[in-house]
Amino acid sequence: MKKGYVKIISDLEKELKKIELKNTNSIDKFESCTKLIPNYLNQLRNSVISEEFICEEDEITFFKKVKPTIVSKFIYYAKLFQIESKRPLSGVEIQKEYFESEICKNQEYFNKNHLFYKYFRGNKTYFDTQYFLRKNKSILIQFDCSGSYLDDQFSTNLDSTFAKFIGYELLIKYCQDEIEKLSFQNNLEVGSSVVKSNLKWTLSKIALIELIYALDSLKVFNNGNADIKKIASGFETIFNIDLGDYYRAFLEIKMRKKNNTKFLDNLKRGLMNRILKFDQ
To answer: What is the pTM of this model?
Structure first.
């Protein structure tokens, strides 16, 4: 059982990475991710139905950790698609207010389910047999998703709730990052006579991410006091690009088998060739 769903999750992560790195348009990217996930979730369901769990502990782990992780991704990307589709085109302050209101909406779910959220955040286990075993499902404990609740073979009392907790936390983080980007952009506009850049990065995102991490490693900005988030946000503004999950992209760079610094090596070769031509 475990090997089956580990492969399904791994395959999904790879496909999501491809979409994240390929698409520069946020709305298209989030729509593609949303359409992708149900197929893998269905594979996961078939795997669970076709092969029983070895013990109750395995079943609890699956419905407490594994399934919510996949479902949370669907919630995250589906909500992001809605958020970005409705994003106002007006000024910075209005956009910031928009994202702040989205944070409040998600926070309200935590407030409404504060006892379960406390259980989730505290990684408690004392009610796990009631919350995450299918045989103990009861409408008296929680009724959070009617579609999931009707599926006796693939749902428990709190797996949908935990998925929402994970997904909504990711959404809040996204909104907070967007507010920070907007604030940074606003500061650039206030402090500079050049409001917008006409430069557009036309190589791959991962090449720019490789460059950003290299510059951050040498601490070349603000005497080494600028964090990677602010640096990435600055590059996004200057080069009119959405870098997406640049940390995940960095992990991909780190895991390269042949050459971890492919773009930087090409950069060095290009500069050396230019120097040689200049000297001729």
So the answer is: 0.69
Rg of the chain over Cα atoms, rounded to whole angstroms, equals 23
What's the rounded Cα separation, in Å, for the pair 207 and 204?
Answer: 5
Measure CA 3 to chain center: 24
Please write the tens of the pLDDT for every residue from 31-45.
Answer: 999 999 999 999 999
DSSP string covering 21-33, please? Answer: HH---HHHHHHHH
Tens of pLDDT, residues 72-103? 999 999 999 999 999 998 888 899 999 999 99
How would DSSP label each residue in 176-218?
HHHHHHHHHHHHHHHH-S--S------S-HHHHHHHHHHHHHT
* Alpha-carbon gap, residue 158 to 155, rounded angstroms: 8
Q: For the chain, which residues make up each domain, given as ranges?
A: 2-191, 205-279
Asked whether 16 and 70 are in contact (CB, 8 A), the reply is: no
Residue 193, pLDDT > 50, answer no
> Can you spell out the DSSP letters for 226-237?
--HHHHHHHHHH
Q: What is the pLDDT of residues 256-266, one digit of tens each?
A: 878 889 999 99
Residue spans of alpha helices (H) in 23-138: 26-50, 56-61, 67-85, 92-112, 114-121, 128-131
Sequential DSSP letters for 25-55: -HHHHHHHHHHHHHHHHHHHHHHHHHS--SS
The distance from CA 75 to its chain's CA centroid, rounded to whole angstroms, is 11
Q: Which residues contact 211 (CB under 8 A, 6 or more apart)?
A: 263, 264, 267
pLDDT at 225: 83
Element (H, E) at 253: helix 246-254
